[in-house]
Amino acid sequence: MDNQNHSLFKEFPPVTPAEWRQKIIEDLKGADFDKKLVYRPHEGFPIQPYYVADDLAKLEYLSQFPGSYPFTRGNKTSGNGWFIRQDLVVGDLKRTNEKALDILMKGIDSLGFILDGDKDYSKDDLDLLLKNIFAEIVELNFHCGRNALQVMRNHYDMLVRYNRDFQKICGSLDFDPFGRLISMGNYYFSKDEDLETCQQLVKTSEHLPHFTVITVEGDFFHNAGATIVEELAFSLASGAEYLTQLTERGLSVNQVAPKIRFRYATGSNYFLEIAKYRAARLLWAHIVKAYGPSRDEIAKMTIHAVTSKWNKAMYDPYVNMLRTTTEAMSSIIAGIDSLTVGPFNEVFEKPDDFSERIARNQQLLLKEESYLDQVADPSAGSYFIESLTDSIAAEAWKLFLEVDAIGGYLEAVAQGFIQKRIAETARKRDMDLASRKDTILGVNQFPNFREFKSGELSGNGWDRQKKAESFNLVDPLRIYRGAQAFEALRYKTDRYAMEHQRPAAFMLTYGNIAMRVARSQFSRNFFACAGFELIDNLGFESAEDGVNAFFTSKAEILVICSADEEYATLAPAVKALVKDQGIVVVAGYPKDHLEELRAKGIEHFIHVRSNLLEELKKYQALLGL
Fold this sequence. Notes:
By secondary structure, the chain is an alpha/beta fold. It contains 23 helices and 14 strands.
Protein backbone atom coordinates (compact mmCIF):
# COMPACT_ATOMS: atom_id res chain seq x y z
CA MET A 1 0.00 0.00 0.00
CA ASP A 2 2.85 2.40 0.83
CA ASN A 3 4.40 1.70 -2.58
CA GLN A 4 1.05 2.33 -4.25
CA ASN A 5 0.66 5.66 -2.45
CA HIS A 6 4.21 6.64 -3.33
CA SER A 7 3.55 5.86 -6.96
CA LEU A 8 0.22 7.68 -6.94
CA PHE A 9 1.57 10.93 -5.49
CA LYS A 10 5.13 10.93 -6.86
CA GLU A 11 4.29 13.77 -9.28
CA PHE A 12 3.31 16.06 -6.40
CA PRO A 13 6.08 17.60 -4.31
CA PRO A 14 5.78 17.03 -0.55
CA VAL A 15 4.40 19.94 1.48
CA THR A 16 5.83 20.56 4.94
CA PRO A 17 3.72 21.79 7.88
CA ALA A 18 5.65 25.07 7.79
CA GLU A 19 4.65 25.58 4.16
CA TRP A 20 0.99 24.84 4.97
CA ARG A 21 1.10 27.41 7.77
CA GLN A 22 2.74 30.02 5.58
CA LYS A 23 0.08 29.56 2.91
CA ILE A 24 -2.69 29.96 5.51
CA ILE A 25 -1.08 33.13 6.88
CA GLU A 26 -0.96 34.56 3.35
CA ASP A 27 -4.65 33.77 2.84
CA LEU A 28 -5.51 35.47 6.15
CA LYS A 29 -4.25 38.74 4.59
CA GLY A 30 -2.78 40.16 7.76
CA ALA A 31 -5.16 38.67 10.32
CA ASP A 32 -3.48 37.06 13.32
CA PHE A 33 -3.25 33.26 12.86
CA ASP A 34 -3.68 32.42 16.54
CA LYS A 35 -6.57 34.80 17.18
CA LYS A 36 -8.38 33.87 14.00
CA LEU A 37 -7.98 30.11 13.81
CA VAL A 38 -6.73 28.67 17.10
CA TYR A 39 -9.55 27.60 19.41
CA ARG A 40 -9.00 27.81 23.15
CA PRO A 41 -11.53 25.77 25.15
CA HIS A 42 -11.97 26.01 28.91
CA GLU A 43 -9.67 23.01 29.23
CA GLY A 44 -6.65 25.31 29.00
CA PHE A 45 -4.79 24.15 25.89
CA PRO A 46 -4.95 25.49 22.31
CA ILE A 47 -6.63 23.50 19.55
CA GLN A 48 -4.99 24.06 16.20
CA PRO A 49 -6.98 24.41 12.96
CA TYR A 50 -5.23 21.36 11.47
CA TYR A 51 -2.95 18.51 12.52
CA VAL A 52 -0.39 16.47 10.59
CA ALA A 53 1.46 13.19 11.02
CA ASP A 54 4.41 14.95 12.66
CA ASP A 55 2.14 15.83 15.60
CA LEU A 56 1.94 12.16 16.54
CA ALA A 57 5.67 11.42 16.50
CA LYS A 58 6.06 11.86 20.25
CA LEU A 59 3.14 9.59 21.24
CA GLU A 60 4.56 6.31 22.53
CA TYR A 61 1.27 4.46 23.00
CA LEU A 62 0.47 4.51 19.27
CA SER A 63 2.48 1.33 18.79
CA GLN A 64 0.22 -0.53 21.24
CA PHE A 65 -2.72 -2.66 20.16
CA PRO A 66 -6.24 -2.41 21.61
CA GLY A 67 -6.41 -4.34 24.85
CA SER A 68 -2.74 -3.68 25.65
CA TYR A 69 -1.20 -1.54 28.38
CA PRO A 70 -1.73 1.43 28.88
CA PHE A 71 -5.16 0.74 27.37
CA THR A 72 -5.49 4.12 25.68
CA ARG A 73 -6.94 2.24 22.75
CA GLY A 74 -9.47 0.45 24.93
CA ASN A 75 -9.77 -2.72 26.99
CA LYS A 76 -11.03 -4.91 24.16
CA THR A 77 -8.69 -6.69 21.75
CA SER A 78 -11.35 -6.82 19.03
CA GLY A 79 -14.77 -5.35 18.51
CA ASN A 80 -16.28 -2.48 20.44
CA GLY A 81 -19.24 -3.98 22.30
CA TRP A 82 -20.80 -2.25 25.27
CA PHE A 83 -23.67 -2.81 27.68
CA ILE A 84 -26.84 -0.86 26.90
CA ARG A 85 -28.10 0.19 30.31
CA GLN A 86 -31.36 1.63 31.54
CA ASP A 87 -31.77 2.78 35.13
CA LEU A 88 -34.90 2.10 37.17
CA VAL A 89 -35.90 3.88 40.35
CA VAL A 90 -36.93 1.09 42.71
CA GLY A 91 -40.23 1.70 44.47
CA ASP A 92 -42.66 -1.18 44.41
CA LEU A 93 -40.45 -4.25 43.95
CA LYS A 94 -42.94 -6.28 41.89
CA ARG A 95 -43.66 -3.41 39.48
CA THR A 96 -39.97 -2.63 39.08
CA ASN A 97 -39.30 -6.28 38.27
CA GLU A 98 -42.09 -6.30 35.69
CA LYS A 99 -40.68 -3.19 34.05
CA ALA A 100 -37.17 -4.65 34.06
CA LEU A 101 -38.39 -7.80 32.30
CA ASP A 102 -40.28 -5.68 29.80
CA ILE A 103 -37.32 -3.53 28.78
CA LEU A 104 -35.01 -6.55 28.61
CA MET A 105 -37.23 -7.70 25.75
CA LYS A 106 -36.65 -4.37 24.02
CA GLY A 107 -32.88 -4.47 23.63
CA ILE A 108 -31.49 -3.61 27.06
CA ASP A 109 -28.76 -5.90 28.42
CA SER A 110 -27.83 -3.90 31.52
CA LEU A 111 -30.10 -2.84 34.36
CA GLY A 112 -29.39 -0.13 36.89
CA PHE A 113 -31.52 -0.36 40.03
CA ILE A 114 -31.59 2.92 41.97
CA LEU A 115 -32.32 1.71 45.48
CA ASP A 116 -33.40 3.71 48.50
CA GLY A 117 -30.02 4.11 50.16
CA ASP A 118 -31.44 4.10 53.67
CA LYS A 119 -33.74 1.12 53.31
CA ASP A 120 -32.95 -2.45 54.28
CA TYR A 121 -33.40 -4.92 51.41
CA SER A 122 -33.74 -8.53 52.50
CA LYS A 123 -32.89 -11.61 50.46
CA ASP A 124 -36.59 -11.99 49.71
CA ASP A 125 -36.71 -8.40 48.48
CA LEU A 126 -33.86 -9.01 46.03
CA ASP A 127 -35.45 -12.29 44.97
CA LEU A 128 -38.62 -10.43 44.06
CA LEU A 129 -36.75 -7.57 42.38
CA LEU A 130 -34.65 -9.93 40.25
CA LYS A 131 -37.28 -12.61 39.61
CA ASN A 132 -36.78 -14.32 36.21
CA ILE A 133 -33.73 -12.13 35.42
CA PHE A 134 -30.81 -14.38 34.44
CA ALA A 135 -27.71 -12.78 35.97
CA GLU A 136 -25.31 -14.57 33.60
CA ILE A 137 -26.58 -12.66 30.54
CA VAL A 138 -27.69 -9.35 32.06
CA GLU A 139 -25.39 -6.84 33.71
CA LEU A 140 -26.90 -5.97 37.10
CA ASN A 141 -26.04 -2.67 38.78
CA PHE A 142 -27.21 -1.42 42.16
CA HIS A 143 -27.08 2.22 43.23
CA CYS A 144 -26.87 2.02 47.01
CA GLY A 145 -26.19 4.10 50.08
CA ARG A 146 -25.77 3.05 53.68
CA ASN A 147 -27.20 -0.36 52.75
CA ALA A 148 -24.44 -1.21 50.25
CA LEU A 149 -22.88 -4.08 52.17
CA GLN A 150 -26.24 -5.68 52.92
CA VAL A 151 -27.23 -5.50 49.24
CA MET A 152 -23.88 -6.96 48.13
CA ARG A 153 -24.05 -9.87 50.56
CA ASN A 154 -27.64 -10.70 49.64
CA HIS A 155 -26.84 -10.51 45.94
CA TYR A 156 -23.83 -12.76 46.37
CA ASP A 157 -25.90 -15.26 48.34
CA MET A 158 -28.45 -15.31 45.50
CA LEU A 159 -25.72 -16.09 42.97
CA VAL A 160 -24.49 -18.96 45.14
CA ARG A 161 -28.01 -20.25 45.77
CA TYR A 162 -28.84 -20.31 42.05
CA ASN A 163 -25.43 -21.83 41.17
CA ARG A 164 -24.46 -19.03 38.78
CA ASP A 165 -21.13 -19.07 36.96
CA PHE A 166 -19.13 -16.31 38.68
CA GLN A 167 -17.04 -15.76 35.54
CA LYS A 168 -20.18 -14.71 33.67
CA ILE A 169 -21.51 -12.30 36.30
CA CYS A 170 -21.11 -8.65 35.30
CA GLY A 171 -22.30 -5.59 37.14
CA SER A 172 -21.56 -3.03 39.79
CA LEU A 173 -22.41 -1.56 43.13
CA ASP A 174 -22.49 2.25 43.03
CA PHE A 175 -20.95 2.97 46.42
CA ASP A 176 -18.82 6.11 46.58
CA PRO A 177 -18.27 7.68 50.01
CA PHE A 178 -15.79 10.18 48.57
CA GLY A 179 -18.34 11.21 45.94
CA ARG A 180 -20.98 11.60 48.61
CA LEU A 181 -18.62 13.78 50.63
CA ILE A 182 -18.15 16.32 47.85
CA SER A 183 -21.73 16.21 46.55
CA MET A 184 -23.57 16.17 49.90
CA GLY A 185 -21.00 17.52 52.34
CA ASN A 186 -20.71 14.37 54.45
CA TYR A 187 -19.98 10.65 54.44
CA TYR A 188 -22.62 7.95 54.68
CA PHE A 189 -21.46 7.21 58.23
CA SER A 190 -17.87 8.38 58.75
CA LYS A 191 -14.63 8.13 56.83
CA ASP A 192 -13.41 5.08 58.74
CA GLU A 193 -16.77 3.30 58.71
CA ASP A 194 -17.28 3.93 55.00
CA LEU A 195 -13.79 2.71 54.14
CA GLU A 196 -14.42 -0.37 56.26
CA THR A 197 -17.53 -0.94 54.16
CA CYS A 198 -15.43 -0.58 50.99
CA GLN A 199 -12.99 -3.15 52.36
CA GLN A 200 -15.78 -5.59 53.14
CA LEU A 201 -17.35 -5.05 49.71
CA VAL A 202 -14.06 -5.89 48.01
CA LYS A 203 -13.71 -9.07 50.07
CA THR A 204 -17.34 -10.13 49.58
CA SER A 205 -17.06 -9.81 45.80
CA GLU A 206 -13.56 -11.26 45.43
CA HIS A 207 -14.85 -14.29 43.49
CA LEU A 208 -16.74 -12.09 41.02
CA PRO A 209 -13.99 -10.83 38.68
CA HIS A 210 -16.32 -8.72 36.53
CA PHE A 211 -18.35 -7.12 39.32
CA THR A 212 -17.17 -3.77 40.68
CA VAL A 213 -18.17 -2.49 44.12
CA ILE A 214 -16.78 1.06 44.27
CA THR A 215 -17.91 3.65 41.74
CA VAL A 216 -15.98 6.90 41.34
CA GLU A 217 -18.77 9.27 40.36
CA GLY A 218 -16.93 11.65 38.07
CA ASP A 219 -20.21 12.90 36.62
CA PHE A 220 -20.66 15.01 39.78
CA PHE A 221 -17.76 17.18 38.64
CA HIS A 222 -19.09 17.46 35.10
CA ASN A 223 -22.60 18.39 36.22
CA ALA A 224 -21.18 21.05 38.54
CA GLY A 225 -19.66 22.82 35.52
CA ALA A 226 -16.13 21.36 35.54
CA THR A 227 -13.99 21.16 32.43
CA ILE A 228 -12.97 17.81 30.96
CA VAL A 229 -9.50 18.27 32.45
CA GLU A 230 -10.93 18.94 35.92
CA GLU A 231 -13.37 16.05 35.65
CA LEU A 232 -10.53 13.68 34.82
CA ALA A 233 -7.99 14.99 37.32
CA PHE A 234 -10.37 15.03 40.29
CA SER A 235 -11.96 11.66 39.55
CA LEU A 236 -8.54 10.07 39.09
CA ALA A 237 -7.42 11.65 42.36
CA SER A 238 -10.48 10.11 44.03
CA GLY A 239 -9.65 6.71 42.52
CA ALA A 240 -6.04 7.01 43.69
CA GLU A 241 -7.29 7.92 47.18
CA TYR A 242 -9.28 4.67 47.29
CA LEU A 243 -6.19 2.73 46.24
CA THR A 244 -4.11 4.39 48.95
CA GLN A 245 -6.65 4.12 51.74
CA LEU A 246 -7.60 0.50 51.05
CA THR A 247 -4.07 -0.80 50.46
CA GLU A 248 -3.07 0.81 53.76
CA ARG A 249 -5.86 -1.21 55.35
CA GLY A 250 -4.34 -4.49 54.20
CA LEU A 251 -5.79 -5.06 50.73
CA SER A 252 -3.53 -5.39 47.69
CA VAL A 253 -3.78 -3.29 44.55
CA ASN A 254 -4.64 -6.54 42.74
CA GLN A 255 -7.72 -6.79 44.93
CA VAL A 256 -8.78 -3.13 44.88
CA ALA A 257 -8.14 -1.75 41.37
CA PRO A 258 -10.38 -4.22 39.48
CA LYS A 259 -13.21 -3.44 41.91
CA ILE A 260 -13.31 0.25 40.99
CA ARG A 261 -15.55 1.57 38.23
CA PHE A 262 -15.55 5.15 36.97
CA ARG A 263 -18.79 6.87 36.03
CA TYR A 264 -18.37 9.81 33.70
CA ALA A 265 -20.80 12.19 32.05
CA THR A 266 -20.35 12.78 28.34
CA GLY A 267 -20.90 16.34 27.14
CA SER A 268 -21.57 17.74 23.70
CA ASN A 269 -17.98 18.59 22.73
CA TYR A 270 -17.82 15.61 20.41
CA PHE A 271 -14.12 15.13 19.70
CA LEU A 272 -12.88 16.24 23.12
CA GLU A 273 -15.19 13.73 24.77
CA ILE A 274 -13.79 10.90 22.64
CA ALA A 275 -10.28 11.95 23.64
CA LYS A 276 -11.32 12.28 27.30
CA TYR A 277 -12.04 8.59 27.73
CA ARG A 278 -8.87 7.56 25.92
CA ALA A 279 -6.82 9.88 28.16
CA ALA A 280 -8.62 8.58 31.26
CA ARG A 281 -7.60 4.99 30.57
CA LEU A 282 -4.02 6.06 29.85
CA LEU A 283 -3.66 7.99 33.12
CA TRP A 284 -5.43 5.42 35.29
CA ALA A 285 -3.13 2.69 33.96
CA HIS A 286 -0.08 4.72 34.99
CA ILE A 287 -1.57 5.46 38.42
CA VAL A 288 -2.35 1.80 39.13
CA LYS A 289 1.08 0.78 37.83
CA ALA A 290 2.67 2.90 40.57
CA TYR A 291 1.06 0.65 43.21
CA GLY A 292 2.87 -2.43 41.88
CA PRO A 293 0.19 -4.71 40.41
CA SER A 294 1.24 -8.24 39.49
CA ARG A 295 0.11 -7.92 35.87
CA ASP A 296 -0.90 -5.20 33.41
CA GLU A 297 -4.57 -6.25 33.27
CA ILE A 298 -5.04 -4.94 36.82
CA ALA A 299 -4.53 -1.43 35.42
CA LYS A 300 -7.54 -1.59 33.11
CA MET A 301 -10.13 1.10 33.74
CA THR A 302 -13.81 0.12 33.77
CA ILE A 303 -15.99 3.01 32.59
CA HIS A 304 -19.72 3.55 32.74
CA ALA A 305 -20.77 6.62 30.76
CA VAL A 306 -23.95 8.65 31.16
CA THR A 307 -25.14 11.48 29.00
CA SER A 308 -24.66 14.94 30.45
CA LYS A 309 -27.34 16.77 32.41
CA TRP A 310 -25.43 20.05 32.52
CA ASN A 311 -26.26 20.96 28.91
CA LYS A 312 -29.87 19.76 28.86
CA ALA A 313 -32.85 22.13 28.71
CA MET A 314 -36.53 22.06 29.55
CA TYR A 315 -37.37 24.52 26.76
CA ASP A 316 -37.27 23.06 23.26
CA PRO A 317 -36.65 19.68 24.92
CA TYR A 318 -36.55 17.58 21.75
CA VAL A 319 -33.15 19.15 21.02
CA ASN A 320 -31.99 17.09 24.00
CA MET A 321 -32.35 14.02 21.77
CA LEU A 322 -29.76 15.46 19.38
CA ARG A 323 -27.44 16.17 22.29
CA THR A 324 -27.73 12.68 23.76
CA THR A 325 -27.17 11.10 20.33
CA THR A 326 -23.82 12.81 19.76
CA GLU A 327 -22.88 12.16 23.39
CA ALA A 328 -23.66 8.48 22.98
CA MET A 329 -21.56 8.36 19.82
CA SER A 330 -18.59 10.00 21.56
CA SER A 331 -18.83 7.53 24.43
CA ILE A 332 -19.10 4.46 22.23
CA ILE A 333 -16.35 5.45 19.79
CA ALA A 334 -14.09 6.06 22.81
CA GLY A 335 -14.62 2.46 23.95
CA ILE A 336 -16.60 2.72 27.17
CA ASP A 337 -17.87 -0.46 28.84
CA SER A 338 -21.50 0.50 29.46
CA LEU A 339 -23.71 3.47 28.68
CA THR A 340 -26.89 5.07 29.97
CA VAL A 341 -28.59 7.52 27.61
CA GLY A 342 -30.85 9.80 29.61
CA PRO A 343 -34.42 10.38 28.38
CA PHE A 344 -34.79 13.80 26.77
CA ASN A 345 -37.18 15.04 29.48
CA GLU A 346 -35.41 13.66 32.57
CA VAL A 347 -34.19 17.06 33.80
CA PHE A 348 -37.65 18.59 34.22
CA GLU A 349 -40.20 15.79 34.62
CA LYS A 350 -40.53 12.09 35.26
CA PRO A 351 -39.60 10.24 32.03
CA ASP A 352 -42.49 8.44 30.35
CA ASP A 353 -42.63 5.36 28.13
CA PHE A 354 -42.02 7.43 24.99
CA SER A 355 -38.89 9.22 26.22
CA GLU A 356 -37.45 6.01 27.67
CA ARG A 357 -38.07 4.16 24.41
CA ILE A 358 -36.31 6.86 22.41
CA ALA A 359 -33.32 6.73 24.80
CA ARG A 360 -33.05 2.94 24.42
CA ASN A 361 -33.41 3.04 20.68
CA GLN A 362 -30.68 5.64 20.27
CA GLN A 363 -28.17 3.07 21.50
CA LEU A 364 -29.76 0.23 19.55
CA LEU A 365 -29.54 2.21 16.32
CA LEU A 366 -25.88 3.00 16.93
CA LYS A 367 -25.16 -0.67 17.53
CA GLU A 368 -27.44 -2.49 15.10
CA GLU A 369 -27.58 -0.01 12.21
CA SER A 370 -24.41 2.07 12.54
CA TYR A 371 -22.28 -0.92 13.61
CA LEU A 372 -20.30 1.06 16.16
CA ASP A 373 -19.71 -2.20 18.03
CA GLN A 374 -17.70 -3.79 15.24
CA VAL A 375 -14.30 -2.06 15.33
CA ALA A 376 -12.03 -1.59 18.33
CA ASP A 377 -10.80 2.00 18.80
CA PRO A 378 -12.24 3.37 15.54
CA SER A 379 -10.72 6.82 16.16
CA ALA A 380 -7.16 5.45 16.28
CA GLY A 381 -4.71 7.28 14.05
CA SER A 382 -6.77 10.44 13.70
CA TYR A 383 -4.22 13.24 13.96
CA PHE A 384 -6.80 15.42 15.68
CA ILE A 385 -8.14 12.93 18.24
CA GLU A 386 -4.72 11.50 19.06
CA SER A 387 -3.39 15.02 19.66
CA LEU A 388 -6.41 15.88 21.79
CA THR A 389 -5.87 12.69 23.81
CA ASP A 390 -2.30 13.74 24.52
CA SER A 391 -3.23 17.33 25.39
CA ILE A 392 -6.04 16.32 27.75
CA ALA A 393 -3.83 13.71 29.43
CA ALA A 394 -1.02 16.23 29.92
CA GLU A 395 -3.26 18.91 31.44
CA ALA A 396 -5.19 16.46 33.62
CA TRP A 397 -1.94 14.97 34.90
CA LYS A 398 -0.67 18.43 35.90
CA LEU A 399 -3.84 19.06 37.89
CA PHE A 400 -3.74 15.57 39.39
CA LEU A 401 -0.21 16.26 40.65
CA GLU A 402 -1.39 19.58 42.06
CA VAL A 403 -4.04 17.73 44.09
CA ASP A 404 -1.44 15.18 45.14
CA ALA A 405 0.86 17.97 46.34
CA ILE A 406 -1.94 19.29 48.58
CA GLY A 407 -2.11 15.90 50.27
CA GLY A 408 -4.42 13.92 48.01
CA TYR A 409 -8.09 14.02 47.14
CA LEU A 410 -9.56 14.08 50.65
CA GLU A 411 -7.28 16.88 51.79
CA ALA A 412 -8.03 18.88 48.63
CA VAL A 413 -11.77 18.50 49.33
CA ALA A 414 -11.30 19.42 53.00
CA GLN A 415 -9.45 22.61 52.00
CA GLY A 416 -12.11 23.44 49.42
CA PHE A 417 -9.58 23.44 46.58
CA ILE A 418 -11.66 21.27 44.28
CA GLN A 419 -14.95 23.02 45.07
CA LYS A 420 -13.46 26.50 44.51
CA ARG A 421 -11.75 25.47 41.30
CA ILE A 422 -14.95 24.05 39.82
CA ALA A 423 -17.03 26.99 41.05
CA GLU A 424 -14.71 29.39 39.22
CA THR A 425 -14.91 27.32 36.04
CA ALA A 426 -18.71 27.24 36.34
CA ARG A 427 -18.75 31.02 36.75
CA LYS A 428 -16.76 31.45 33.53
CA ARG A 429 -18.98 29.04 31.66
CA ASP A 430 -22.08 30.84 32.90
CA MET A 431 -20.62 34.14 31.68
CA ASP A 432 -19.93 32.60 28.27
CA LEU A 433 -23.56 31.48 28.07
CA ALA A 434 -24.81 34.89 29.19
CA SER A 435 -22.74 36.60 26.49
CA ARG A 436 -23.54 33.85 23.95
CA LYS A 437 -19.90 33.02 23.45
CA ASP A 438 -21.18 29.50 24.11
CA THR A 439 -24.68 28.46 23.15
CA ILE A 440 -27.35 26.06 24.28
CA LEU A 441 -29.65 25.77 21.30
CA GLY A 442 -33.21 26.77 22.13
CA VAL A 443 -32.15 28.50 25.35
CA ASN A 444 -29.77 31.39 24.72
CA GLN A 445 -29.81 31.10 20.94
CA PHE A 446 -32.60 30.36 18.44
CA PRO A 447 -35.39 29.76 20.98
CA ASN A 448 -38.74 28.37 19.92
CA PHE A 449 -40.88 31.54 19.64
CA ARG A 450 -44.14 29.66 20.16
CA GLU A 451 -43.21 27.55 23.17
CA PHE A 452 -44.66 28.54 26.54
CA LYS A 453 -44.79 26.68 29.84
CA SER A 454 -48.08 26.68 31.72
CA GLY A 455 -48.81 25.51 35.24
CA GLU A 456 -46.43 24.63 38.01
CA LEU A 457 -43.25 22.75 37.22
CA SER A 458 -42.24 19.82 39.41
CA GLY A 459 -39.06 21.47 40.59
CA ASN A 460 -36.86 18.76 39.02
CA GLY A 461 -35.53 21.32 36.57
CA TRP A 462 -34.22 23.77 39.14
CA ASP A 463 -30.99 24.00 41.05
CA ARG A 464 -30.53 21.01 43.36
CA GLN A 465 -27.61 22.43 45.29
CA LYS A 466 -27.02 20.88 48.69
CA LYS A 467 -27.04 23.71 51.22
CA ALA A 468 -23.98 24.11 53.41
CA GLU A 469 -25.32 22.79 56.70
CA SER A 470 -23.57 23.40 60.02
CA PHE A 471 -22.98 19.66 60.44
CA ASN A 472 -21.36 19.23 57.01
CA LEU A 473 -17.70 18.31 56.97
CA VAL A 474 -17.10 20.23 53.72
CA ASP A 475 -18.90 22.63 51.42
CA PRO A 476 -20.54 20.50 48.70
CA LEU A 477 -20.44 21.07 44.96
CA ARG A 478 -23.26 22.94 43.33
CA ILE A 479 -24.86 20.50 40.89
CA TYR A 480 -26.83 22.48 38.33
CA ARG A 481 -27.51 22.91 34.62
CA GLY A 482 -26.12 25.63 32.39
CA ALA A 483 -29.57 26.52 31.07
CA GLN A 484 -31.16 27.08 34.47
CA ALA A 485 -30.65 30.86 34.72
CA PHE A 486 -32.24 31.41 31.30
CA GLU A 487 -35.04 28.97 32.04
CA ALA A 488 -35.87 30.74 35.29
CA LEU A 489 -35.95 34.03 33.38
CA ARG A 490 -38.23 32.68 30.69
CA TYR A 491 -40.47 30.81 33.10
CA LYS A 492 -40.92 34.07 35.02
CA THR A 493 -42.41 35.58 31.86
CA ASP A 494 -44.60 32.52 31.30
CA ARG A 495 -45.92 32.72 34.86
CA TYR A 496 -46.60 36.43 34.48
CA ALA A 497 -48.48 35.78 31.23
CA MET A 498 -50.88 33.41 33.00
CA GLU A 499 -52.57 36.40 34.62
CA HIS A 500 -51.46 39.34 32.46
CA GLN A 501 -50.86 40.20 28.84
CA ARG A 502 -47.58 38.66 27.71
CA PRO A 503 -44.87 41.34 27.33
CA ALA A 504 -44.29 42.15 23.66
CA ALA A 505 -41.43 43.55 21.61
CA PHE A 506 -42.33 45.42 18.41
CA MET A 507 -39.83 45.59 15.54
CA LEU A 508 -39.80 49.02 13.88
CA THR A 509 -37.97 48.14 10.66
CA TYR A 510 -36.85 51.00 8.45
CA GLY A 511 -34.42 51.85 5.65
CA ASN A 512 -31.65 49.55 4.42
CA ILE A 513 -33.38 46.23 3.73
CA ALA A 514 -30.42 43.97 4.50
CA MET A 515 -29.66 45.66 7.81
CA ARG A 516 -33.23 45.97 9.00
CA VAL A 517 -33.96 42.31 8.29
CA ALA A 518 -30.75 41.11 9.96
CA ARG A 519 -31.29 43.29 13.02
CA SER A 520 -34.94 42.36 13.28
CA GLN A 521 -34.01 38.68 13.25
CA PHE A 522 -31.31 39.28 15.86
CA SER A 523 -33.70 41.23 18.09
CA ARG A 524 -36.46 38.66 17.87
CA ASN A 525 -34.06 35.92 18.92
CA PHE A 526 -32.82 38.20 21.70
CA PHE A 527 -36.20 38.90 23.29
CA ALA A 528 -37.58 35.42 22.60
CA CYS A 529 -35.01 34.06 25.06
CA ALA A 530 -37.12 35.74 27.77
CA GLY A 531 -40.41 34.43 26.37
CA PHE A 532 -41.63 37.80 25.09
CA GLU A 533 -44.19 38.02 22.30
CA LEU A 534 -42.60 39.24 19.07
CA ILE A 535 -44.18 41.51 16.49
CA ASP A 536 -42.20 41.71 13.26
CA ASN A 537 -42.86 44.05 10.33
CA LEU A 538 -41.90 44.28 6.68
CA GLY A 539 -40.75 47.90 6.93
CA PHE A 540 -42.14 51.40 7.44
CA GLU A 541 -41.89 54.50 5.26
CA SER A 542 -41.40 56.85 8.20
CA ALA A 543 -40.85 57.00 11.94
CA GLU A 544 -44.43 58.22 12.37
CA ASP A 545 -45.88 55.19 10.59
CA GLY A 546 -43.81 52.83 12.71
CA VAL A 547 -44.69 54.49 16.01
CA ASN A 548 -48.40 54.57 15.18
CA ALA A 549 -48.29 50.84 14.44
CA PHE A 550 -46.44 50.32 17.73
CA PHE A 551 -49.19 52.11 19.67
CA THR A 552 -51.84 50.02 17.89
CA SER A 553 -50.04 46.78 18.78
CA LYS A 554 -50.10 47.64 22.50
CA ALA A 555 -46.55 46.31 22.84
CA GLU A 556 -44.37 47.63 25.64
CA ILE A 557 -40.97 47.55 23.87
CA LEU A 558 -40.16 49.17 20.54
CA VAL A 559 -36.97 47.96 18.86
CA ILE A 560 -35.58 50.16 16.09
CA CYS A 561 -34.04 47.96 13.37
CA SER A 562 -32.07 49.84 10.75
CA ALA A 563 -28.52 50.71 9.66
CA ASP A 564 -26.07 52.60 11.90
CA GLU A 565 -25.98 55.65 9.64
CA GLU A 566 -29.75 56.03 9.82
CA TYR A 567 -29.94 55.85 13.61
CA ALA A 568 -28.62 59.40 14.04
CA THR A 569 -31.92 60.85 12.79
CA LEU A 570 -34.34 57.92 13.05
CA ALA A 571 -33.81 57.01 16.69
CA PRO A 572 -34.30 60.54 18.14
CA ALA A 573 -37.43 60.97 16.00
CA VAL A 574 -38.88 57.70 17.29
CA LYS A 575 -38.00 58.54 20.88
CA ALA A 576 -39.68 61.95 20.60
CA LEU A 577 -42.87 60.35 19.29
CA VAL A 578 -42.98 57.51 21.84
CA LYS A 579 -42.08 59.72 24.83
CA ASP A 580 -42.76 57.70 27.99
CA GLN A 581 -45.36 55.41 26.43
CA GLY A 582 -42.91 52.59 25.76
CA ILE A 583 -39.33 51.43 26.04
CA VAL A 584 -37.26 52.37 23.00
CA VAL A 585 -34.38 50.04 22.13
CA VAL A 586 -31.82 50.39 19.36
CA ALA A 587 -30.71 47.15 17.69
CA GLY A 588 -26.98 47.48 17.19
CA TYR A 589 -24.12 49.49 18.59
CA PRO A 590 -23.73 52.65 16.47
CA LYS A 591 -20.48 53.74 18.08
CA ASP A 592 -20.16 56.88 15.95
CA HIS A 593 -23.49 58.18 17.24
CA LEU A 594 -23.65 56.76 20.78
CA GLU A 595 -23.00 59.95 22.72
CA GLU A 596 -25.39 61.93 20.57
CA LEU A 597 -28.16 59.35 20.97
CA ARG A 598 -27.68 59.06 24.70
CA ALA A 599 -27.84 62.82 25.04
CA LYS A 600 -31.27 62.67 23.39
CA GLY A 601 -32.59 60.16 25.95
CA ILE A 602 -31.93 56.88 24.15
CA GLU A 603 -30.59 54.51 26.81
CA HIS A 604 -31.08 50.99 25.54
CA PHE A 605 -28.96 49.17 22.96
CA ILE A 606 -28.79 45.45 22.20
CA HIS A 607 -25.98 43.90 20.18
CA VAL A 608 -23.79 40.81 19.85
CA ARG A 609 -21.61 41.81 22.80
CA SER A 610 -24.52 42.37 25.17
CA ASN A 611 -24.81 40.25 28.29
CA LEU A 612 -28.02 38.61 27.17
CA LEU A 613 -29.06 37.35 30.58
CA GLU A 614 -28.54 40.64 32.43
CA GLU A 615 -30.14 42.68 29.65
CA LEU A 616 -33.26 40.54 29.64
CA LYS A 617 -33.49 40.70 33.43
CA LYS A 618 -33.32 44.48 33.09
CA TYR A 619 -36.22 44.59 30.65
CA GLN A 620 -38.29 42.32 32.86
CA ALA A 621 -37.65 44.69 35.76
CA LEU A 622 -38.59 47.73 33.66
CA LEU A 623 -41.88 46.02 32.81
CA GLY A 624 -42.58 45.14 36.43
CA LEU A 625 -42.29 41.38 36.13
